[in-house]
Write a structure and sequence with these properties.
There is one protein chain. Strand 1 and strand 2 form a beta hairpin. A 4-stranded mixed sheet has the order 3-2-1-4. The longest helix is centred in the middle third of the chain and has 23 residues. The chain is built from 7 helices and 4 strands; from the N terminus they run E-E-E-H-H-E-H-H-H-H-H. It is globular and about 40 Å long. It starts with 7 loop residues before the first strand and ends in a 6-residue tail after the last helix. The chain folds into 2 domains: about 80 residues, Double Stranded RNA Binding Domain (2-Layer Sandwich); about 130 residues, Four Helix Bundle (Hemerythrin (Met), subunit A) (Up-down Bundle), CATH 1.20.120. The protein has about 230 residues and is α+β, with helices and mostly antiparallel strands.
């Protein structure tokens, strides 16, 4: 477990165009930029948006001024597309049960944040400068689909895709996913890790990044355009 007054351990994943700075002990706090410095600065800039997620999990937020780069990872076309894909070596190491529950709690707080943001968002979201971007329900469908059709399968689960308005089924799918992650964590390396599997620490980081990235997108695109 990271020391409360310790540095924020960050891995930097760099492709040909984009870099991702990801806080390894704080799933969901991961931002991209054009180059390593830009990615780290954007990570720090999002600390205030990430802090309510951390507090919702019953944890005190980290100090964004104390960032320590502990790994540099080679990115790919997926990185440049805007997805943090590379797995850090620290994410392959054993993790204590207490620390794993803290990580799962932060992931769950990300899910809660997404649901709250979506519940308060308009159905039609502001489009990008070229008219692009999904509307609210399409974003929800994308997030739910990724969780049951990609992230769950990485942990060996086969889950039915819940209807968007079936909140109980969506919550049950997330509980199944969290429990599957718990089952593959422990003192030994993740038995699912391989050509298809992800180490549980990375899986949590990836899932939490995805849901918060879209929660913040919905928030940003729910507001009127600047100057409107």
């Amino acid at each position: 477990m990271p020391a409360p007054d310790g540095p924020v351990r960050v891995c930097l994943e760099t492709g040909g165009r984009l870099s991702f700075a990801s806080a390894l002990d704080w799933p969901g706090w991961s931002r991209s930029g054009r180059g390593e410095e830009a990615a780290v600065e954007r990570l720090r800039a999002y600390a205030s948006r990430y802090a309510p997620v951390v507090r919702a999990a019953g944890v005190e937020p980290p100090d964004p001024a104390r960032v320590e780069i502990v790994e540099r990872l080679r990115g790919s076309a997926t990185t440049d597309f805007g997805v943090p894909e590379a797995i850090a070596e620290v994410e392959r190491e054993p993790v204590t049960a207490g620390e794993f529950e803290r990580l799962v709690g932060l992931m769950a707080a990300g899910w809660e944040t997404f649901d709250q943001v979506v519940a308060g968002a308009p159905a039609s979201l502001r489009k990008g400068p070229r008219g692009g971007g999904r509307d609210r329900d399409a974003i929800v469908d994308h997030v739910v689909g990724a969780e049951v059709e990609m992230y769950a399968r990485k942990q060996g689960l086969r889950l039915p895709r819940p209807a968007l308005d079936d909140l109980a089924a969506r919550a049950a799918a997330r509980t199944s996913l969290a429990n599957a992650l718990r089952a593959t964590a422990g003192p030994e390396p993740n038995p699912a890790a391989g050509s298809k599997g992800w180490p549980p620490r990375y899986a949590i980081r990836r899932i939490a990044w995805h849901v918060l990235d879209h929660a913040w997108e919905v928030e940003d695109r729910s507001d009127p355009a600047p100057g409107a």
